[in-house]
Design a protein that fits this description.
Alpha-Beta Plaits, globular, alpha+beta, 10-stranded mixed sheet
Length: 267
């Protein structure tokens, strides 16, 4: 280690953000991203470059409530007051909910056992401006019972190519697997504080491929609209062809809700 770099220790941060303010999570030169803003703030506080890793690389417009970040920070940093300090520096749009020291081999992405996403649909004839940034407004009445039924084939380990944006091929590298293990996929129906009908889709899996949740939600909404039958979901999955599935739901209704880890990795 050079004399200019302090002794460091692995830290774990729990972060929430309003995705409308950012061009996605991952660092992207020239645009404002969650990782870029938090990384710059941590580097300023630490007085040396801090590189951060997130559990999920959310797209532009996607929100986060339970995003987990790992990074190496100076051992003498004031971790107790770091969340408040970072939140102030990263405002508006980012809140650092907690910060703690963790095991040296902890990795926010590769140590994760599962990710839980939530998608919100405002299913009401009249739009709600207070939900415009966090819910997809679908004015036509959705048959949620049909949408419930269409969730069943998603449970288990499947090739989700029909619901994923195909990654660009990389020379001399194998094509990434689209197999994912989904352990939860269900809708809940609620009423907003202003009396509107809210439908929330909860999905949990070991990992997700690009646009997987949004493609599943869009297809399930098409089921609710009567454009696709619930019995077609298995055939869509088996086809492994993206064009067999329905529409892609807009990004702003999606939120990375929670990420799960083995308890023993934390001190």
């Amino acid at each position: 280690m050079s004399t200019s770099e302090p002794a460091t220790r692995r830290a774990r941060l729990l972060v929430a953000y309003e995705g409308s303010y950012f061009n996605g999570f991952a660092v992207n030169e020239g645009v404002r991203t969650i990782a870029g803003v938090i990384g710059d703030a941590l580097s300023l506080i630490s007085r040396f470059p801090v590189h951060i890793t997130g559990a999920g690389r959310t797209d532009a417009g996607v929100h986060g409530w339970g995003q987990v970040i790992s990074c190496d920070l100076p051992i003498d940093i004031d971790l107790e007051h770091l969340p408040r300090r970072l939140t102030k520096m990263c405002a508006p749009g980012i809140v650092v909910r907690s910060a703690e020291w963790t095991a040296e081999d902890f990795h926010a992405r590769f140590s994760a056992q599962w990710r839980h996403y939530r998608y919100t649909v405002l299913n009401d004839p009249v739009a709600d401006p207070f939900l415009a940034a966090s819910a997809w407004h679908v004015p036509e009445r959705l048959d949620v019972q049909l949408m419930y039924l269409a969730c069943d084939p998603l449970i288990g380990e499947h090739d989700f190519s029909a619901f994923c944006r195909k990654p660009k091929p990389v020379e001399n590298e194998p094509t990434p697997s689209m197999f994912r293990l989904v352990t939860q996929a269900q809708w809940t129906e609620q009423v907003s504080e202003r009396g509107s009908r809210l439908l929330r889709f909860e999905i949990r899996a070991n990992a997700f491929c690009h646009q997987m949740v949004r493609s599943i939600v869009g297809t399930l909404v098409d089921v609710g609209l009567g454009k696709i039958t619930p019995g077609s979901m298995s055939a869509i999955l088996d086809s492994r062809v993206r064009t067999e599935a329905g529409q892609v739901a807009p990004a702003h209704g999606l939120c990375l809700w929670e990420v799960g880890y083995l308890e023993q990795i934390f001190e």
